[in-house]
Amino acid sequence: MSPAPYPVDPARPWPVFDVASTRRIEHQALQAVAPHTLMQRAGLATARLALAIAPHARNIWVAAGPGNNGGDGLEAAAKLQRWGKQTTVTWLGARAAASADTAASLQRAIDAGVAFADAPPERFDLGLDALLGIGASRAPQGRMAAWIQRMNQAAVPTLSIDLPTGLDADTGHCDGPHVVAHTTLCLLTLKPGLFTAMGRDAAGRVWLDHLQLDPASFAAIASQCATYGGAPATRVRRHASHKGSFGDVAVVGGAPGMAGAALLAATAALNFGAGRVYLAALDPALSSAMVTQPALMLRHVDGLVLGQMVVVCGCGGGDAVRAHLPRLLSGATRLVLDADALNAIARDTQLQGPLRARAARGWQTVLTPHPLEASRLLGTTSTVVQHDRMGAARQLADRFQCTIVLKGSGTVLAAPGQLCRINPTGNARLATAGTGDLLAGAIGAALASGLPETEAAWEAVYLHGQCADRWPADVPLTACAMANRLQAPTDC
Q1: How far apart are CA 177 and CA 144, in angstroms?
Q2: Which residue in 4, 190, 268, 407 is a FRET match for 239, CA 20 to 30 A apart?
Q3: CB of 449 closer than 8 Å to CB of 235
């Protein structure tokens, strides 16, 4: 087993552990190796990665906290100094209060000739953030906050050990100053906060080192809380197929003045592989002449055969969608609810019973809220939702007994009795009108193909984000343009 750190490739699925589980794994690991071994391995892994990301750096600043994360930094400083780097440590600890491991690493740094200072050096080529890791109990203050500001302002790479200081390892929330790292080296486990909420901006590129332990043994010690990444499998479209082989999707939405949202969802469903797509616009003035995609078929919502198709409801639905929800909730066996459909359900508790009852009938349901819509469904605020995105997604999944796609940075997918999944794809270019409608339509098409609801939602979420990641830098990303590039992973 190689001791070298390796980058976290989002194309494969990775187990993710919360802080409590990571502590159990760490405790077990400490019992299995000789004293000080784990910290030495952590320092070595950090020093190796530091050389990899900044090979020409001469002057390195290590900002070390009082706990074992600081000890990892001290150990890395000793290694880098012995390898010919000029290393300066600012340490917030005290020898008398240090753990045995940290005290040993402190002595090794002193013996190696590491310089210790009360303030950061004026010039440095690489910053090592070893302040808190997962040991944060409150927002950084005082000298620590000042050092974070200095590190963030420097035009040099920053490597955070285990977790950017100030970031909540479980939620990705930050209550105060936090390090914005170029690279984060996770030790032993990946933490969910790195990949959702503010985590993706704070963590930069994420690497992992198991410290020469067998990660397969971790499952016997602690339960993972989520899965990060994992590209969907390619779908096979057999040559002897016809449009009926790939299912029907009906989009219900597009109230007066909002027809574009329904058109975008319907176009995405077509391009994502649905065999037939019907547009049931709620604007009575919409005519076939106004529909720019000729493959779409117009239908009245009351004429849809709900048991034979996937229904995507809510895109641009306005207040008009409320009147149709009772029939759709009680008749559509496969249903994707977005936007105004979610707002209507949040306002009208009488609709929530039929929504929950769908699971007992074996029907498929996917809800695709953004944080504000999620907060309305939960009766809270979007701030509370963003403080714990995985917790909010799980709460919604349990309350409504269906698959939840909580959109945002690090979209979270939750379903009753299943681990959360955190999506690795997507970027800020998706923050434009209509891209959420495209996602709803793509999920509808994936459901129509016959995939289970969680797999259908994951496929669409992953590829929706991947489409944005692969978007040409010199081409504006708009929903209209993206609708024509969003495709299912087929082999033809």
Answers
A1: 9
A2: 268
A3: yes
Please return the burial class of 229, using the count of CB atoms within 10 Å of its CB with bins 0-12, 13-18 and 19+: buried
C-alpha 456/C-alpha 446 separation (Å) is 5
In the block, tokens 């198709």 appear at 309
- The CA-CA-CA angle for residues 339, 345, 347, to 5°, reads 105
Give the separation between CA 52 and CA 388, rounded to whole angstroms: 34
pTM recorded for the entire structure: 0.96
CATH superfamily assigned to domain 6-225:
YjeF N-terminal domain (3.40.50.10260)
User: Which tokens in the block code for residue 217?
Assistant: 């043994």
- For the sheet with 115-116, list strands across it: 6-7, 205-209, 183-187, 158-161, 126-130, 59-64, 86-91, 115-116
DSSP label at residue 478: -
Domain boundaries, the chain: 6-225, 243-483
Phi/psi-derived region of residue 126, left when phi > 0, alpha when psi is between -120 and 50, beta in every other case: beta
Q: What is the pLDDT of residues 331-373, one digit of tens each?
A: 999 999 999 999 999 999 999 999 999 999 999 999 999 999 9
Please write the tens of the pLDDT for every residue from 231-260. 999 887 776 676 776 799 999 999 999 999
Decide: residue 255, CB within 10 A, 0-12 exposed, 13-18 middle, 19+ buried. Answer: buried
The residue among 276, 138, 227 whose CA lies nearest residue 423 is: 227
pLDDT tens for residues 386-399?
999 999 999 999 99
Q: In this structure, are strands 403-406 and 364-367 parallel, antiparallel, or unpaired?
A: parallel
Interatomic CA distance for residues 197 and 408, integer angstroms:
7
Class of the CATH-defined domain 243-483: alpha beta
